[in-house]
Amino acid sequence: MLPLQEVKVLSFGTGGVVPDAGKILGELGADVIKVESKDNLDFMRTIGPDMNNIAGFNEANRNKRSFGVNLKTQRGRDLVRTLVKWADVLLENFRGGVMKNLGFDYDSVRTLNTEIIYVSSQGFGGGGPYSDFQAYGPMLSAASGMLSIWAQPDDPYPVGSNSPLPDHMASKHVVIAALAALDYRRRTGKGQYIDMAQTEVAVNLIGEHYLDYTYNHRISKPTGNRSTYAAPHGCYPCRGNDEWCAIAVFTDEEWRGFCHALGDPEWARDPKFSTLRSRLENVDELDQHIREWTSGLDACVVMEVLQAGGVAAGVVQRAPDALADPQLKWLGSMVELDHPVSGRRLYPGVPFRMSGAPPMPSTAAPLLGQHTEEICRDLLKMPDDEIQRLVREGVLHTPASTKGGEAGILG
């Protein structure tokens, strides 16, 4: 039996945070229903030519069923209210005010289900001067202060990343909060309202910089790949075109292993490199020596030689490299799923194993409304003729009824 096999989740997720959280809960065994509409698409469905064939959407929305419904209609809202009574957990990350306007804010929902666990995750949280602001991952990196240090020292502006790191971390915090609330309800019988600001998650990622300012009155500046407590520490060029290896040496013992792995070169015996403090004081010269060594070797050789000496080192891999990586293959890190539109594709699997549970499966992301009729029949106990009538009236959405309306912003 999977850990969350008896848990029922209703997801009003859009974008990355709540959809990814629902995916994780689904992998743990929960029955996750995604409430969505063709008239107000999850914006991740719009960033490509076909709303059912978007790589980012299909990754973040695995392991769930899609219930296509028009929430602008009274009948559509009534059907979802019935699902609220069915659910153990409700997840939402719409902009502030949207759920209240729909009649599905916490105060309204708990009149239907007093034991509901309601997780609300906006960019800036509920309440306060920014609660209704639009937010997305890279902007949260900026608001938290993370972006101000995410660059090389000589870059003319903060660099950041195309990967919305706060989104990916916030989704895991949603899961942790939901699991904690489920345990609390198991012990007390009481539901919970959980308000999680995604920008606070981003703040948690750089807590040491806040502490540095609090105690030392220093404002952190970009240091690139360097560290204030390790040297060498960075990505070093290797043989070939744009090939790199990341190396980190924290202790003097690791430094001795590093030197031994390099064959104890004469430059490494210089007293200016004998302690961490002296290495940090002479880090430019130190990095130049290391670059001269790494540039003549393949990145994999650098990694293997240093790892054999007890030094943390790893090849900077791209997607094809990671897919072919022998360790990730041994772990079974990638799973192949067959999507009805995208076909067979590789996706990241569950990154842990539980000795007391069976392997945790993944299922392909749903087409919009793929499970609408199934949910109406099995959970809502509706007759087929009523289901088909509501589909014709546009209250319910199925893959057939949305065909032809699948073009996104790039279509």
Write a structural description.
The protein is of the alpha/beta class and 411 residues long. It folds into 2 domains: 8-204 and 331-402, Crotonobetainyl-coa:carnitine coa-transferase, domain 1 (Rossmann fold, 3-Layer(aba) Sandwich), CATH 3.40.50.10540; 233-316, formyl-coa transferase, domain 3 (2-Layer Sandwich). The chain has helices spanning 17-27, 55-60, 74-86, 98-102, 106-112, 137-144, 165-188, 198-204, 207-216, 252-261, 276-281, 283-294, 299-308, 319-324, 326-331, 372-378, 384-392, 399-402; strands spanning 8-12, 31-36, 65-69, 89-92, 117-120, 192-195, 233-238, 243-248, 312-315, 334-339, 343-348, 396-397. It has a 7-stranded mixed β-sheet with strand order 6-5-4-1-2-3-12, with helices on both faces. A 3-stranded antiparallel β-sheet has the order 7-8-9, with helices on one face. The chain is elongated, with a radius of gyration of 25 Å. Mean pLDDT is 93; it is low at 406-411.
